Amino acid sequence: MTYPLREDAQVDVRARTGRALRDITLEALRSGDLTLDDLTIHPETLRTQAAVAEESGFTQLAANLRRAAELAHIPTEKVLAIYHALRPRRASYQELLALAEELEHEYQAIHNAKLIRQAAEAYRARGLA
Amino acid sequence: MRRSKRFRVLEQRPIHREAFVHPWPDVGLVVTDSPNDPKPSLHGKDGRVVEMDGVRLQEMDMIDRFIADHALDVEIAPEAMATPSSTIARMLVDINVPRHKVARLARGCTAAKLVDIVRHLNVLEMMVALSKMRLRRTPANQAHVTNRKENPALLAADAAEAALRGFAENETTVGVARYAPLNALAILVGSQVGRGGVLTQCAVEESVNLRLGIKGLTSYAETLSVYGTEGAFVDGDDTPWSKAFLASAYASRGVKVRFTSGTGSEALMGHAEGRSMLYLEARCLLVTRGAGSQGVQNGSISCVALPESLPGGVRAILAENLLAAMLNLEVASGNDALASHSDIRKTAKLMCQFIPGTDFVHSGYSSVPRYDNLFGGGCFDASEYDDYLVLQRDMQVDAGLRPVREEQVLAARDQAARAVQAVYAGLGFPDITEDEIAAATTANDSRDMPDRDVVADLAAADALLEDDRGLVDVIRALDQAGHAETAERLLELGRQRVAGDYLQPSAIFDDHFHVLSAINDRNDYAGPGTGYRLEGERWREVADIPLARDPASYLEGQGEHPAQRLQDLGPAAKGTTAEVIVAVGPAFGQALTETIGGLPHEAVLEQLVAGIAEEGTWARIIKVHHTADCAFIGHVGAQLSGSGIAIGLQSRGTTVIHRADLAPLTNLELFPQSPNLTLASYRQIGRNAARYAKGKPVRPVPVEVDNWARLRLIVKTMLLHRREIEQIEPDRSPTELHFGFEPEVAP
Fold this sequence. Notes:
The structure holds 2 protein chains of 2 kinds. Chain A has helices spanning 26-30, 43-55, 59-71, 76-86, 93-106, 110-126. By secondary structure, chain A is mostly helical. Chain A has 2 domains: 1-73, no CATH class; 75-129, Hypothetical Protein Yqey, Chain: A, domain1, CATH 1.10.1510.20. The termini of chain A are far apart. Chain B is of the alpha/beta class. Chain B has 2 domains: 138-512, TIM Barrel; 555-739, B12-dependent dehydatase associated subunit (Rossmann fold), CATH 3.40.50. Chain B has 28 helices and 20 strands. In chain B, strands 14-20-16-15-17-18-19 form a 7-stranded mixed β-sheet, with helices on both faces. Chain B has a 4-stranded parallel β-sheet with strand order 6-5-4-11. The two termini of chain B are 63 Å apart. Classes of the chains: A mainly alpha, B alpha/beta.
C-alpha cells in the first residue's frame, strides 16, 4: 500500500505538467516557472487513487476516480457542457448517445461514455430525454 | 376561562415557539414507517436486478434504476437480503462483529432493507452503532465562516480563528453570488494562517463552484444535493447521472466531493410520494454511494425543523447518519441549520452525534455569530464556543474543537487579515485598509467592520473568476509580501492537490498536513478500550479550557497574615456568668484568615462581639480544636457558655446559634450560606445570640438565599474546609482566646 502518496518517497507523484512533487517549491514559484497546472492532479494519480479505493472496498468511489481520470484531459468548458447536457430534459436521447460517442472516440473516456449511455436509456424510459 | 399560572409560565418557554404536528403520511409528514413504504425485496436475473422493493424493472423510476445499476452489490445482495433485518441490527451493536462485516452486508441492501434494519434500533443502540460504523477513526468538525458585509478581512480573520479552534474544514458561501471567488479566497488564506491543512469550500452554484476548485481557491465541494424521489430530483434540475458526472468532474480537478441529502427535503418540495422521510433518505444515500461520492452531508440539514415537528424526528435524523456510515460514506452529520428555539432541545439532539462521534460532528458549526451566518442561522454559533468546550471536557468527548487563548486568537486574526490584505494588493484588488485590519482583528461580527466599496469589490470578483489567476498567484502575492509561512502552507495544499490523498473517504489533514482518512485512519472500534479514545496529550488539551483555574488560587491570601489581636490563653473553663460564647473553628485566624465571602476573620469577630454587647451582655471567645463541624463547634461552645448560648463559627464563615440543652445537630438558628453573610448579618447574629441568652423574644436573622452560590463556590468551600480539617487536633480541648477589641456600646 502506497497511501498516502504524498508521504511515500518511493512513489513518483507528478503534477498534470509532469513536475515532480519535490520540484513544487517557493523557489520555483519565485523564478516564475510554476503554473496552476503544476498544482493540479495528473490522471495517472487519479487512477492510482482509484486503485487504493478499490483495494479498500470503496468500489463506487474507485469508479468515480477512474471517470475523473478520463475527464482530467477534457477542457473545463466541455466538462461543464456535458454536465448541463445530463441535466433533465436538456438533451435528446440521440444527442446523449452522440455525446457518449464523442467522449469515447475523441477523449478515450470509455467509463464516462458508458455512464452517459446508461443515462440516455434511463432518461428515455422516464421521459427526461 | 380560568388559566393556570403555571401553564402561562410554560407557554413562555422557547419550546412553545416550535411547530409540532401529528403524522400525515399521505403528504410525506412521517419520519419512518409510512404505510406507503415498500417492503424489502430483490430479484435478479443474469446478474441484473429485475425487481427491487416491490418495483419491477420496467416500472422503475430513474432513482431505482441508478441504485440497481450502481449502488447494489449483486454478489452480496442475495445473502444480505436473506439475512433477517433484526440479525443485521444486532450485528450493528455487537462489539464482537467487526465493522467491515456489517458494511459488507450493507452493500447488498435495498433502501427498504436498510430502513428495516435500523427500525430495530433505539437511539442508544444507534449511537453505539454509529461509533462503530463511522469511517474515520478520529472524529472532526466543520465550521461555517460568513458575514453579511462579505468583508474579506473579517472572513479571513474568522477563518483563521476557526482553524485555530480546531475545525478541519471551513465552509463559506455568499449573500451576493458574485462575491464567490473573493469569499473563497479570503477563507482559503485565513484558514491556512490559523492552521495549515484546513480544507475549505465555497457553497455556490455548480459551474462557479467547479471553477473555484480548478483555480485552487477551494479544496472540496458539498453542494451536490440528491433527492429520494424522481420528482424532487428533477425539480432540483439534476439526475443521479448528472450528479455522478459532476462528482467525477470535481475529482478530475483534485477537488474532494461530498453529496448533500437529508430527511424532509422531498416532502418540503412536494414530492414525497407518501413515503417516509427515512425511506427516501435511504434512497438518497444509495444514489450517493452509486455516484461514487466519498461521503455525504446528511442529518436533515436545512430541513431539520420538518422531521423535528414529528414524533421520532430526532431519532430518524440519527438513523440517516447511521445509514450513511453503514454504506461506507463519510458523514458530515448536520447540526448546522437552526434546529430549535430551545437550548435544551438543540443540545439533546446534538448529543446523538456528539457522543458517538462522526467524521464531522457539525456540517457547519457557525464560527461566526448567528447574525452573520449566511447559511440560515447556525444551530450552534460563536457565542457558544465555551459551552461546547465544557461539553467536550465534561464527557471526555472529542468533537474536534480545541481551547484557545484570547491573545493567540487576536494574533492569528491580525495575521490573517494582513495576509488577505497582501493578496488583495498583489492581485490589484481594492485596498484593505489598516482600519479594516484593526476592526477585523477584534470584531465580533460585521457590524464592527467599516463598509467597503461593493462595486469595486464585485468588479475584482468578476475579473478573478474570468481570468487565469488562481492559487499560484495567491501564493506569489503572499510570498512577496513576506508571508512566507502562509505561502508555504498554501503551496503544501497545492502539493496535496497533486497527490490526491484527500480524495479518499473521510479525509482531513492533521496539524502536520498528514492526511487522515478511511484508508489510513480506519475506524477500528470494537468495544471498550478500542477505537478512538480521547486520552494523552489531546485529552490534556481538551481539558485545559481557559475557564479552568488552578484550584490552589482559591486559597491565595489565606493564612498569610494571621490575626494579630487573637491570643490563646490556654484551656477554656465552663463559664459561670451570663456570657455568650463565640466558638471558632481550628483554623480560625491562623491557617485561614478570611471567610469564603472574603471577610477578614477579625472583622467578623468584631461584629459578633459588638452585636452581643449591644444587647447588654458580653462575649467570650473560645477555639475548638478537635472538630471542624459547625454544629459541633457551636455545641461545644454552648456547653462551656455560662448562659448556655453560643455562636459556632467555622473559619469559612458558616455560623450556627446553639444552646447547651439541644442535641448537637439541632440549633436555634443556622446560617449555612456563608457566602451571602455580610458584616451586618454577623452583627445581627451577635445580637440574636445575646437576646437568646437574656431570654428575650427573637426574630431570626434574615439572610439572602442564593442557591447558585453553592455551584460557584463549591471548590473553594471544599478547599477551605479541607484546610480547617488539617488543623484538627483530636485530643486538644477548647482554649480561651483573648481578642484585643472593645466594642463601643452606647450606655
